[in-house]
Amino acid sequence: MGLLSNKISRDELKAGDHIYSWRSYIYTHHGIYVGDGKVIHFTRGGGLEIGTGTILDKIIVSSVPHHGGDNPCPDCGDQTNLNGVISSCLDCFLSGGNLYLFQYNVSKAIFLAKQRGGTCTIATSDPPEDVVARAKFLFSRNGFGEYHLLDNNCEDFAIYCKTGLLVLSVTKSGSSSQVNSVCAAGGVVFDTQGFRVGTSGQAASLAAASSPALTLRVLELLLTGYGNYCVSRLAYDVGVRKDVRKVPVDELVALMAVIERKSDNNKECKLS
Q: The LRAT domain covers which part of the protein (predicted)?
């Protein structure tokens, strides 16, 4: 594991580690390794897609554990339709992907050097025994609420298990750094969308070559946009946000139960 990659071998795994695996170029699935080859993670089962007809459906389904092949895992069984906090063997969790270790207590320089979110945080991890205890408690109660790709996902679950920190703001996304990176990237698009050269790459090259001032302007916009992306991503990190607090796991489960009851009541009112 180094600056450019958090990839590790299975021999390096320790109970309480926050691990992840890339499901696609833009999405990582996260969980807590609790020892004995088991990972506790938060997922949304197959058949419960958000139904947008977009790539978001595929992203959510890709969080489902998969052993590979046609036969269910001999240890885990068929988990494709399970929903919420579940326990899987390491093979099913990875679903054929590589193993990566999420880093905690990184410096701001290291954080900004990581170009993609979902790999590290400035926040400090609690002791491994506390991390494992939180994960097992949430698994026993299936107590992390309803999966939501943007507001309450697998990375939010793993970060909570590691830190006990919960985002309290209702105006921002959760603690997931990969989601917050998307939010930050949106600002970059907004900053640079006013600049247009045309759709032809050749035309753009010719325009830049014929005008040094235009070349400098392009570089200025790119550097400004990337700078804004980095600053925004840092501001969203759970380690520096002001809208988080430490929440005991039993209080979290009780809070999620209240939220779910209110949600069910609202659904019943709409149907009646």
A: 19-170
Element holding 115 (H helix, E strand): none
* pLDDT tens-place string over residues 169-218: 654 445 555 555 545 444 444 444 444 444 444 444 444 555 566 555 55
In the chain, the domains with their CATH numbers are 10-182+233-271 (3.90.1720.10)
* Residues known to be catalytic: 29, 41, 154
Give the helix/strand (H/E) hosting 133: helix 128-141
Q: What angle do CA 28, 34, 35 make, to 5 degrees?
A: 115
Q: Per residue in 121-178, pLDDT tens?
A: 999 999 999 999 999 999 999 999 988 887 889 999 999 999 999 988 654 445 555 5
H or E, element range at 176 = none
Cα–Cα distance between 31 and 36 in angstroms, integer?
Answer: 14
